[in-house]
TrEMBL record:
Chief site of localization: membrane
Organism of origin: Thermohalobaculum xanthum
InterPro entries associated with the record: Fatty_acid_hydroxylase, Sterol_desaturase/TMEM195
GO biological process: lipid biosynthetic process; membrane lipid metabolic process
Keyword Oxidoreductase listed: yes
Molecular functions per Gene Ontology: glyceryl-ether monooxygenase activity; iron ion binding
GO CC entries: endomembrane system; membrane
Name listed for the protein in its UniProt record: Sterol desaturase family protein
Amino acid sequence: MSGELAIRLAVFLGVFLAMAGWERGAPMRRLVASRPRRWITNWSISVIDAATVRLIFGAAAVGAALDASAAGTGLFNRLELPAWAEVAICFVILDFAIWLQHLITHKVPLLWRLHRVHHVDRDIDVTTAIRFHPIEIALSMAIKIGLVYSLGVPVVAVILFEVVLNGAAMFNHANIRIPPKVDAWLRLVVVTPDMHRVHHSVLRSEHDANYGFNLSVWDRLFGTYIAQPGAGHQGMTIGLADHQDDAPTRLGWSLGYPFRR
């Protein structure tokens, strides 16, 4: 387990530093809120999230995969498929599950109250990718663990999926400029920053679109894809319309936000 955590942490920090450096060198948008305050708050929320998951779930999804494998439970532990096929199929299923879960958090009022903590950030950059309310993270992990047990997802697939998902989330939240032609090719397969930025618009019609975190196929397949924001990437407003102020940069306010009217 320590080796798995070391790999995930190394990839996480590597991607984070790469995206942060890219943002400095080629930013897409000018930030409107205080960067130090936002970063301190977003990082603090991420640390609380990690502690919450570790406290409640221990080894979390990886532990569930190990348990399912040892007990021989779950669909893929009963099928005799090549290892590579199991990993590939499970990766795609998990990615779809994350897409569907994300869509549901926008449609169910109680879940939206939690998910708003992510959307209320007035800027979108690499730290927005780690800004989720601890209760939402705990619920998401519980769903993931249930899925891992029921499918019998191989440990390798869980580790691969979580590493890729974390890296993809930091990439597509990053405030980076990518040449339009390159972006057009990339988004045929993966969610790009320009594609996901639409999802953080203050306009309901736009933030109820582009739910993907990794593979871009789901939004195209289910009709929730919007290519570009109506006001353009420079003209669009990020966040939620009723909180275009400095409140989201404060940790206490952000953690208490779901419980306010």
